Each structure stands twice: as C-alpha cells, then as structure tokens.
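Ligand: iron/sulfur cluster. Inputs:
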Amino acid sequence: MLEMQKIKLAAPLQTDSIVDGPGIRAVIWTQGCGHHCKGCHNPETWNFEEGIDCSINDIKKQLDDLKNHDGITLSGGDPLFQPEACYEIAKHAKKLGYNVWCYTGFTFEQLMVMKHHNPYILKLLEQLDVLIDGRFILEQKSLNLKFKGSRNQRIIDVPASLKENKAIIIEKYSEEKVWKPKYYKEEFLYI
Ligand code: SF4
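Predicted complex:
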C-alpha cells in the first residue's frame, strides 16, 4: 500500500516544547480544526484550506535528527482530522523510541465510534502513549492544570484504554495545583 505523502501543518516542527507533555518535546502543529471552541488559543489553525503542505518524509527526517528529546506531541488544530498522516508520523516516532502524546477536541468515546468510519483513527491511537481529549471549555479553564487548558479535558493512558475499551485517566496529571513562587505577593497582580 502507498504511504500517505503529505500533511497540512500550521507551523514548522517545533523542537523545544516543555509544556506539551513531560520533558523536552518536538511538536507537530497540525492545521485544521472543526471544533471551534470559545476561547481557543490557536484559532488561526482552524481553517482546513490554510497552513503549509509538508512532506511526511521531510518530517520523518527531522525527527531522525532530534537529539536528547523525551518525546513528540501531535497538536494543532486537531490531529484527528488528519489521522492517516498523523499515524505515519507517530509510527515513525515510535520506531525511533519516542513516547507520543496527542491532543484532540474529540473525546475518547467519540473516537471509539469514529474508528468504525475511518480505520486510521484506531491505527493512530495504537501508536499513542497518551491522549489529551475533549474540547477546550472556557468556563472550565484553569491555569493550575498540567498539560491541559480546561478541567473537562482528560489525560488518558491510550494502551490501557484500548485494552479495557474505556478511558483510563492518568491520575498523576489530574491534580490541580496552585503555583505560587516564593517571592509572590498579591499586589504584583496590580502593577
Ligand atoms: S479543539 Fe483545540 S484547536 Fe480546536 S478549537 Fe478547540 S481548543 Fe482550538
């Protein structure tokens, strides 16, 4: 079977993220998202006609050149709108020994239905270690969450979830922690 050749990206490969999963990560910023969440931090990634057409082989080569990285993260946009291309990239990253995280506006349960209409949804999920699922809900936004923007979103152990056929949440990332540096004073807020 011919491998998928292209992916639509919102930006070139980012190689220095420390906020899209643990450690130092490379991030694939996919273009296109149909969820249109109120308060989305990346609305310029919504339009499916915009973005950059990139060769998947070029991205694989860039992943080959990474050094001292802990993993890669698929983000966007919503990578689940390009499951075939993201599957090719995730599969390559796994071969290189990276852990793979992925953000999506769909819930795990919705993806379990969608996989019956597009086999690449499951193929992509099978390459993932972690899925952060669900739309961003502005009313549930918190700056004290780790690796996610709103309280409804879940950080899911994908291999365990596929085995159990239900979303298994990674508890260590569920905690909501108020972060205050030692020198923090309330009046700083009003400067
Ligand atoms: S799913 Fe993510 S990229 Fe898409 S609209 Fe919601 S917050 Fe924005």
